[in-house]
Amino acid sequence: KKNREEMANSREVFVKRAIENGHNEKTASRVFDLIERFANYGFNKSHSVAYSMIACSMAYLKAYYPLEFYSAILETSSSTNDTKFNEYVSEMKKRDIKIVAPDINLSHKEFIVKDDTLLYPLSAIHSINELLVNNILIERNNGLFKDFFDFVSRMFKYKISETQITRLIDAGCFDAFDSSRASFRASIKSALQYAELSYKEDGQLDIGVSSMQIDTPERGFSFRFDAPLSMAMGQNNLDAKEVINNMSESELSDIFYKYGEEPRSRAIARRIVSIRGEKPIKTTFELVNIIKNIVGEWQATKVVPRIFQALRIYVNDELGELEKVLGDSESILSSGGRLVVVDFHSLEDRIVKNFIKEKTEIKQAVSRYIPMAIENNQKLSFKSVNKNAIIPSKQEVEMNPRAHSAKLRVMEKL
Questions:
Q1: Average pLDDT estimate for 31-60
Q2: First-last CA distance in the chain
Q3: Most buried residue, 91, 158, 241, 282, by CB count within 10 Å?
C-alpha cells in the first residue's frame, strides 16, 4: 500500500534531483507519474504471463473437469470455517455439483470424486484430528467396518473418545448402516462397553456408580455434600435436576418406588412438586431438606439414600446397562471364560440371579402333556461356579464399609 504523504515528498526530491542532473521539470514530473501509477498495482511482463497461463489452465479445468477442479481447490482451504471454503461450496451448489456426507468406509483424508459427486473427507470434520483419521484408515485396511459396533470395537485400541464418535455420527459417517443418527448416539456407551470386553481377553466394567464419583462433590451423587443436583455419569442429556423439576408427581413417585423401593414415594413426590412450584430445586441439600421435612431427621438416614439411589439409577439407566452387558457376555465370552459380577443392592442382584437361572438351569416341563423332548432340546450357555453368592467378611467390611451389601456371583461359559 502506498503512503500518499510519502509519495508527495518523494516527488519533490525526484523532480529536484532530475533538474540538477540536466532534465527539465516537465519530463521529470511525467516520469514520476508513471512510477506513481505502477505503485498502485503493477506486474512486470514475466509475472503477468505466468498469471495468465495459470488462469487459462484453471478456467479450462473448471469448465471441463469441475469435480476434479473443486476437489483440488477445496484442499487449499484451511478448514470448513474458511471463508473461501464456503464460497467454493456455494459456487458448486449453483452449478448443481453435489457434495455427499462422509462415509466411514469410503472417505479419505482429502476430497475424492465418486459416482459423479464429491465425497467429503474425514479430515474436514470438526474435532477429528489427523491422528484419528490416520488410525481409521489403518484399521480400515484390515477390512471394511461391518456396522457401528464393529467400528467402535476396532477403534477402541486407538483410544477413540465419546466426543469423537459423536462428531462422526453427526457428520453422517455411519448413515450407510441404515440406522438413525439418534439411534447411534444412544448406543455410544453400550458400544464402548462392548468394545472394552472385546478388546481385552479379561475385561472389567463398572456399571454403577463408583466411590470416586460419590466422593466428588460437584458430580452431585452424594447427599453428604451440597452440590448441583446432577448424578450424570457420562455425557447424558438428562440429569437429576431435570428429573426433579420437570417430571410429574406420578412419574417421580414411580421412580422412587421402582428404583429406591421407598414406601413413602407418593408423599415425597407430592412435596417436591409443591416446592418446585415456588422455585426450582437445584442442589443436593435442597432435596435432602425436603425429604427430612416429610419423614423426620431420624427416618431420613434411610429414606434419603433410597431417593438418591433411585434418581441415580434412573438418570443413568443403570439396570438397563446391566441387562445389556449380561446379554452381550453370552456372545463375547469364549468357552471356559468366566463372568464375575459384583452387585450392591437388591435391584441389581435380582437381575443377576434371574440371568444365572435362565442360562444355567433347564426349564422343567410344566405339564405331563408337554413332550420331554422340549426339555432335552434346551441349550445352556453357562454353568454356575458358586452356588451361593460370596459376601464380604467382617474384616473386609471394617476396611471398606461400602462393601457391606456386595454380593459376588460367578458363571463359566460352556
A1: 84
A2: 81
A3: 241
184 vs 59: CA distance, rounded Å: 43
In terms of residues, how long is the chain? 414
User: DSSP letter at 172?
Assistant: T
Q: How far is CA 121 from the centre of its chain?
A: 20
Instruction: Supply the DSSP string of 178-204, one letter for each residue.
Output: SS-HHHHHHTHHHHHHHHHHHH-SS--
Of 343, 376, 352, nearest in space to 362 by CA: 376
Exposure of 361 in the CB half-sphere (CA atoms within 13 A): 10
CA R_g for the chain: 35
Angle in degrees, 0-180, between the axes of helices 130-140 and 148-155, rounded to the nearest 10: 110
Cell 446397562 belongs to 321
pLDDT in tens, 91-116: 888 888 888 889 999 999 888 888 88
What pLDDT shows up at residue 239?
86
- Greatest CA separation found in the chain? 132
CA dist., res. 315 & res. 335, Å (int): 35
* Helices within 247-345 (DSSP H only): 249-260, 265-276, 284-295, 297-316, 318-332
* Amino acid letter, 236: N
Name the least confident of 82-91, 273-282, 373-382: 373-382
In the block, which residue shows the cell 474384616? 395
